[in-house]
Amino acid sequence: MIHERRKPICATCQHRVRSILRDVDEYALQHLDSTKACYTYKKGQVILSEGIPPSGLYCLHTGKVKIYKTGDEGREKIVRLARNGDVIGYRALLMGVPSPVSAAALEESLVCCIPQDTFFKLLRANGSLSMRIIELLSAELGNAEEQIVHIAQRPVRERLAEALLLLKETYGTEDGDSSALSVRLSREELAGIVGTAIETLVRTLADFKKERLISTEKRKIRILDLSRLAKVGNIQD
Hints:
The protein is α+β, with helices and mostly antiparallel strands. It folds into two domains: 3-151, Jelly Rolls; 154-232, Winged helix-like DNA-binding domain superfamily/Winged helix DNA-binding domain (Arc Repressor Mutant, subunit A). Helices cover 41% and strands 24% of the residues. The chain has helices at residues 26-35, 90-95, 116-125, 127-153, 156-171, 187-194, 198-210, 226-232, and strands spanning 3-4, 37-41, 46-48, 56-62, 65-70, 76-82, 87-88, 102-105, 109-115, 173-174, 177-181, 214-217, 220-223. Strand 12 and strand 13 (220-223) form a beta hairpin. The longest helix has 27 residues, at 127-153.
C-alpha cells in the first residue's frame, strides 16, 4: 500500500545539490512545495507503469528505484537505476506520450510527485532547468547507445563485473562493511541489468565466487577484490 507522507521542503532538501532543481529560485520552490505530493513506496511497488502517461514528474527523495522495460515472456531489462535526488518520468511528460518504461522501488522509497502543470511552468520560467533536462536527455541517449554496444560486443563476464561496479558507484556500500553493496537485488533483477539469461548470470556469479572476486549471502553481494573485478570488467582507471 502506498502512503502519503509529510512533504520534504525543496529549499532545504539535502539532495537538491545534485538535483535538476538546484538552480530554481526560492519563490518557485515554494510554489512547487505547495502543489507536490509525496508518497512512500514499499519494496517492489510500482511507481510508474510502462504504457501509461505519468501523472507528473517523480523525484526520488530517499530510497532506491529501478527503471525498466518488460520484454518477451515478461522478462525485465533494467535500463537505469535511480538514487536520491534523481527524477523519473520526464521524457514521457515532455513528449506527451505514455511512459516508455516502468519504475519500481528496490527498497522502501519516498517519492515526491510534481504535477505536470507545475513542472511546465517551471520549465518556461527557468532556462537553467531546461538545460538540466536537455543534459539528462543527452546522457540517457548516450547510455542507451553504450548498452546496445555492450550487449552486442562484450561477454557476460565483462558486463557482470561492470554492473557490480556500477551498483557500488551508484548506491555505495553498507555502513560498517565497505565490501558489501548496499542494494539488494534478485537474480532476475541483476540479470536484467547485465542483459543476460538468469541461468547464465548464476553460472557467472559462481565463477566469480570461485575466483574470489565476490562472495554472496542470499541477496547480499560483497566485492572481495575491487581491482581484479575492474580488470575483468575492462574498466580503465
